[in-house]
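User: Hi! I have a protein structure encoded as tokens and I'd like to know what sequence might fold into it. I'm fairly new to this, so please keep things simple.
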């Protein structure tokens, strides 16, 4: 028996014995996928409404991605960044044309994209070192990105972090205005805060952030790692509000499931970054870039973005109708393929029951059920989820009564 065929129990035992225990894993063993469906080691079928935490935007075994990967398998798997590879400039051009910004730095992950944005902001503001970010934000786990992450339990064990970061509450323009000073290099915002529980920053607030950053000579950086790349029905989340940032960070779905991150930089960064000031061995891997180009081809087809918007509106209306009937749902927030259903109870056990009912969902903060489905998810999967959620919440209610 190959290790690949091991039973779930054997996999868990080896995992526990040999991996650093950084994850509190759920008892779930996905092994195959097709479209928006996942199949576990026992062949049980699930609707995947989490999409690998916003990575699998086209679902599983998408024919275009499979074809690209097959073709790439006979090509170079890695090319050093000391040399040229056409796929890097092609994907950079696509992101520049899609955003209206100027250039792209390619890396491997979200946290790395934010690290690069921190360094670029320092270079572009003449050595300013401070930053402003939001309470409940999430920007990554490396020390720079963690310094911008407004979540104390993630930060506390690693103090001291990067100094000079001030946190303010989401959607509070007056607090932002007070926090940004002549020493601020950049304001970091997620247009929709994912880990924070699907909190949308209002268009007014984003406009105020642009105005405040401009007035103080600071840069405005949008972390669109979770909410960008079509998830809100626009290629870039900022295109929904019309507020143009100086930099956008991307990762998650960009590499079609392989690691690929990016910082898209605007005119304020032009000329600020010189050769040798930043770099990565793997960033812009040619296979990941080729997959990324295929992902962008699919997302940029107007049909898919229109489907994301329409399905999002349909789902929002249905979820709010359920909220009106089920008191355990205290709020429904989101758009497109990014939703949070805030409950009156911890979301973790509810997510486990939904898994047992055949729906893979995420959570955020303590009480939010978080959905980040592949964009190709059919309505019947979302419909089925709402029925299952009502049953799970109703059953819990009956148990308590
Ligand atoms: C908004 C946001 N920024 C940054 C990150 C970090 O990305 P990565 O895990 O690829 O480092 C995440 C990951 O969930 C995220 O949601």
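Assistant: Happy to help. Inverse folding works backwards from shape to sequence: for each of the 401 positions I chose a residue that suits the local structure. Here it is:
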């Amino acid at each position: 028996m190959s290790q690949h065929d091991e039973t779930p129990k054997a996999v868990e035992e080896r995992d526990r014995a040999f991996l650093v225990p950084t994850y509190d894993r759920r008892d779930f063993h996905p092994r195959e996928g097709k479209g928006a469906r996942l199949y576990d080691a026992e062949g049980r079928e699930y609707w995947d409404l989490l999409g690998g935490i916003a990575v699998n935007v086209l679902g599983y075994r998408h024919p275009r991605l499979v074809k690209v990967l097959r073709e790439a398998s006979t090509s170079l798997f890695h090319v050093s960044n000391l040399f040229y590879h056409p796929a890097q400039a092609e994907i950079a051009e696509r992101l520049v044309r899609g955003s209206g910004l100027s250039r792209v730095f390619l890396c491997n992950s979200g946290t790395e994209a934010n690290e690069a944005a921190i360094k670029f902001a320092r270079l572009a503001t003449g050595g300013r070192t401070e930053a402003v970010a939001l309470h409940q934000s999430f920007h990554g786990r490396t020390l720079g990105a963690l310094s911008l992450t407004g979540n104390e339990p993630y930060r506390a064990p690693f103090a001291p972090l990067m100094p000079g970061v001030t946190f303010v509450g989401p959607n509070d323009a007056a607090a932002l205005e007070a926090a940004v000073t002549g020493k601020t290099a950049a304001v970091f915002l997620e247009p929709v805060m994912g880990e924070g529980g699907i909190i949308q920053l209002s268009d007014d607030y984003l406009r105020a952030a642009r105005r405040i950053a401009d007035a103080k000579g600071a840069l405005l950086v949008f972390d669109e790692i979770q909410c960008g790349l079509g998830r809100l029905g626009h290629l870039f989340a900022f295109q929904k509000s019309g507020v143009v940032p100086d930099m956008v960070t991307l990762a998650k779905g960009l590499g079609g499931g392989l690691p690929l991150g990016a910082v898209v930089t605007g005119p304020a960064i032009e000329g600020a970054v010189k050769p040798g000031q930043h770099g990565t061995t793997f960033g812009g891997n040619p296979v990941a870039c080729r997959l990324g180009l295929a992902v962008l081809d699919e997302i940029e087809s107007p049909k898919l973005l229109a489907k994301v918007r329409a399905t999002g509106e349909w789902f929002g209306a249905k979820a709010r109708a359920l909220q009106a009937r089920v008191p355990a749902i205290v709020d429904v927030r989101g758009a497109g393929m990014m939703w949070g259903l805030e409950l009156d109870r911890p979301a973790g056990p509810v997510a486990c029951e939904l898994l047992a009912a055949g729906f893979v969902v995420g959570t955020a903060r303590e009480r939010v059920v978080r959905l980040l489905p592949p964009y190709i998810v059919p309505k019947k999967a979302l419909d089925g989820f709402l029925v299952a959620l009502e049953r799970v919440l109703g059953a819990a209610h009956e148990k308590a009564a």
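A useful reference point when you look it over: The chain has a mean pLDDT of 96. Feel free to ask if any position seems puzzling.
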